[in-house]
Write a structure and sequence with these properties.
Length: 363
């Protein structure tokens, strides 16, 4: 069977990572490259030289006539680009968040269904075997669950430039929060009912109506609760930047991240927490059992579950593209995946509204 022709749109961090994934898989071939600055890019792989290049998305879509469109652009283009791809008969991979608004997200889903095309959203944690195990363990802790998660990034140098550009479009809890709220929903299998949030602007370099520190609290109809914290910027603490704790009546689980490398050098332009390759890395999982003997001692000792399969960022991108390929070949039903992408987006957008309007938002 001939490989699927891919139009790769957006050639930043994520676009390049997914491009490497398509290169590594026999089921795909990159048939077009699209980015606004494409003609000035001198850093692209040499073997991409023969691939047609386009600065305009709609011109690229018409010229390439791809089987798959891979959308790795800023969020304000996601919905329009995806709908156009479906109308052109292509399947779509799209980086998170799916859209800027819940209404646009629903519009994308409707277009996928209308044209009978596949839609995969870049929820990388769903493809990480470590996270699959964490979700499975959390579901065994009883109800209600208490879920504590964060991903803070002390971004300086190039990462701060990138985050400032991203902050012009959306907040940290919207960009990263969809991952972790989605994980909470998988753990509880319950319906979220309300959201609250708080945020702070910790830099004069971002818009006055934007915040670069945010925290959301989500409440579920089974009594479970969760919070998620995300922050970007040169003032953000490197300590406890990646907390992942889940507690229930039967015990708790905690993700143990890799040993932290604190940077103290004057003139540094890199930090451990802002390196995208550290965000999915886990050394082990601590499973604590809460059952007690009559003398109040624990019945079982804690378990350290070592992480053997440690996919890096590029390997997880490859797993996402295998998932899309399986869906196109009829091996995967994407119904739950697509609904979950919209659901988690609605939750983080409600939290963003809560922060901006200083009120609890009912879902």
């Amino acid at each position: 069977m001939a490989p699927l022709r891919v139009l790769l749109v957006g050639l930043g961090h994520m676009g390049m990572a997914h491009g490497r994934a398509y290169d590594s898989l026999e089921g795909y071939e990159i048939a077009g490259l699209c980015a606004r600055s494409i003609h000035s890019r001198m850093d692209l792989p040499d073997h991409w030289r023969p691939i047609p290049r386009f600065p305009d998305y709609y011109e690229a879509l018409a010229a390439v006539r791809p089987d798959v469109v891979s959308i790795n652009t800023w969020p304000d283009t996601h919905a329009a680009f995806a709908v156009a791809a479906f109308e052109a008969g292509a399947h779509v991979f799209i980086e998170k968040p799916l859209a800027e608004t819940a209404e646009d997200a629903e519009r994308v889903l409707a277009a996928a269904r209308q044209h009978d095309r596949k839609l995969v959203v870049g929820y990388s944690m769903r493809h990480n075997p470590i996270w699959k195990r964490v979700v499975e363990l959390a579901q065994g802790l009883g109800k209600p669950l208490v879920m504590r998660m964060n991903l803070n990034q002390q971004s300086i140098g190039p990462s701060w430039t990138w985050h400032k550009n991203l902050l012009s479009a959306l907040s940290p809890i919207v960009d990263c929060g969809v991952h972790y709220v989605d994980a909470m929903c998988q753990m509880t299998l319950a319906r979220p009912v309300r959201v609250s949030g708080m945020g702070a602007r910790l830099s004069e370099e971002i818009a006055t109506d934007q915040y670069n520190y945010g925290q959301l609290q989500v409440f579920f109809d089974d009594g479970s609760i969760g919070w998620y914290e995300a922050a970007w910027g040169p003032s953000i603490s490197e300590i406890a930047f990646m907390v992942k704790d889940i507690m229930g009546p039967k015990g708790s689980i905690s993700v143990i991240p890799p040993a932290h490398q604190l940077g103290t050098a004057k003139g540094a332009t890199w930090t451990f927490s802002s390196d995208i390759h550290t965000h999915g890395r886990m050394e082990s999982v601590l499973l604590h059992h809460s059952a007690l003997n009559p003398d109040q001692s624990t019945v079982e000792g804690d378990e350290i579950i070592p992480v053997v399969d440690k996919p890096d960022h590029d390997q997880i991108c490859r797993l996402e593209q295998i998932y899309l390929l399986d869906a196109i070949n009829g091996k995967v039903d994407l119904g739950e995946h697509m609904e979950a992408a919209v659901n988690s987006l609605k939750i983080v957008l409600a939290a963003d509204l809560s922060i901006k309007e200083k009120r609890v938002v009912e879902l």
